[in-house]
Each structure stands twice: as structure tokens, then as C-alpha cells.
Amino acid sequence: MKTFVFVILMFFSIQIVQTRPAWSAESKQPEAKTAPAAAQKSERRESMKKFVLVILMFLWSGVDQAQPAWGNEFKQREAKVAEYKKWLDTLGPQGSQFWVSLDARRRPHKLYLGEGFYRADFQSQERFIDTFSNYLAGHPEKFMLIDLFDAGTNNLIGEYGFGGFKLYAKQARTG
Fold it and tell me: Is the dihedral of CA 88, 89, 91, 93 positive or negative?
């Protein structure tokens, strides 16, 4: 609404839209304007200036719009990732032994899983790997590719990637 009012006021102020026609005093008829060639060039120049001014005002009115504040989104994302880290630390080597170590030198990351991971049910395992992937990506809605290894044997036991969470059938252990 603010922009609409601004545009209307702009049109009236630069007189592109006239509120009433120019009438002569004697005849109550619109004036017949005849001007020499130099005057026509001057009128063209003036109308071009008005046109450019209108374009600039339209562009300015678009810039003037209030932009939503996105700075808060980064703080919320940081807080969520910090919450993930805190939860993952409780499940780490000093906690429940879901995971023992992480090799992040090359991608996909290698996550070495401990005994706590094998004792958990499938939904808990999937939630753990999903959260770990979000944590590694640094964003609650993005994921990092992870290869899952058994900490005791160093064998590949599963993966987390584009197809989701997969445990390979032969090496999968349950508690």
C-alpha cells in the first residue's frame, strides 16, 4: 500500500497525470499549443527526463521495501547444531559408546561404531546416524555422506547417503 500511494503521489508531482486539462480563460476550450521545432525538442527533453525519473522512482520504491530479517535463522541453526553436538557427545567414546572415532580426512567420512550402537534398536541407530550426518554438515536440514565401520574389526558395515541409512546384512550385528 505504501508503494502504491508513493507512485500516485509521484505521478501527480511530476505532472505526467494531470488532474484537469489546461483551459483558456476566454473560450473554455483546451488551448491549442503550437510551438516551433526548438520548443518541441525542449518538450521531448522534458518528457524524457520525466520518464527517466519515473523509472528511477519505481526502482527506488522496490528497494525501499522492508526485507525480512534472516540473521535470526543463523543463530537458530547454530543452536540446533550445538544441541546435536551435546547429544552426540553423550553417545561418544566417554558416553554410551555408540561411536568410537571419526575419520574426517576424506569424504565420505568414516564413522567407527562401538558396542552401544549394536545394542540399540534400528530406529535409535537410524536417528543417531541421521543426527550425526546433520552435525557433520553443520545444518539441521542438510546431510553428510558417512561410511559406517565396526570399531573392533575395521570392517565396513553400512553407509549413510543419498539412499538413506543402510546396514549391510552380513556384517550387521545386533545385541
Answer: positive
C-alpha cell at 57: 522512482
C-alpha cell recorded at residue 69 = 530479517
C-alpha–C-alpha distance, residues 64 and 138, integer Å: 34
How far is residue 2's CA from residue 61's CA, in Å, rounded to a whole number?
9
For the stretch 44-70, pLDDT in tens is 888 888 888 777 777 766 655 555 556
Q: Are 90 and 96 in contact (CB under 8 A)?
A: yes
pTM: 0.56
In the chain, which ranges are continuous DSSP H helix?
A: 2-13, 37-63, 71-90, 115-119, 122-137
Of 65, 53, 55, nearest to 3 (Cα)?
A: 65
